[in-house]
Design goal:
Blueprint lengths: L2 E4 L2 E4 L13 E8 L6 E7 L16 E8 L4 E4 L2 E5 L2 E6 L2 E9 L2 E10 L4 E7 L4 E6 L12 E4 L2 E5 L2 E6 L6
Parallel strand pairs: 5-11
Antiparallel strand pairs: 1-2, 1-3, 3-4, 5-8, 6-7, 6-9, 9-10, 12-15, 13-14
């Protein structure tokens, strides 16, 4: 709930219940404030015996950001602070510049500087490139003689020995 002030004095705060108060007759300055929203202040006239219901929609002072990557489930950093794993949907950010990065030990980091606008919505998707390393494979029999052998990487036939192979550094089986 919003914080409500009347003539600069706090009337209600952080209440999810309705705020109901008796007001003195006359004109009063009413302010409603809510985190990540633009405060609203208006002059309101109250009359004796009148029941006045004030329900204001406060303008959001944030934008929404959705972050995805291929492959998913990689760490996301907002302004160099880790905020979780993607996908991240409808993250509320204050307007302005923000640095977004997606990191994982098996992939090259990807990032982008973005501008979030008040009330705006941005969608980012990063395609991550795997990191590779080179390996030289040979096969020998029990007497030390070179022999050809099939090479399987992650259960997929990749070639034969002897040869050099460029493998993703997070290859699971060889």
């Amino acid at each position: 709930g919003a914080m409500v002030k009347v003539d600069g004095k706090l009337l209600c705060q952080d209440s999810l219940k309705r705020c109901s108060k008796t007001m003195t007759e006359g004109q009063h300055t009413v302010t409603m404030e809510l985190e990540k929203h633009v405060p609203r202040t208006e002059k309101v006239i109250f009359r004796k015996g009148e029941i006045k219901k004030l329900e204001w929609d406060l303008e959001p002072n944030f934008g929404l950001l959705t972050i995805k990557s291929l492959p998913p489930n990689k760490y996301v950093y907002l302004n160099d602070h880790r905020i979780g794993r993607n996908p991240i949907r409808d993250l509320e950010l204050l307007p302005g510049a923000h640095q977004i990065k997606v990191r994982d030990r098996c992939f090259y980091e990807k990032g982008q500087q973005i501008i979030i606008e008040k009330g705006g919505k941005r969608d980012l998707e990063f395609e991550l490139a795997p990191k590779f390393g080179r390996i030289v494979l040979e096969a020998k029999d029990s007497d030390g003689n070179d022999v050809g052998a099939e090479v399987f990487v992650d259960n997929k036939r990749t070639g034969e020995t002897p040869d050099e192979f460029d493998l993703a550094i997070c290859t699971e089986s060889l």
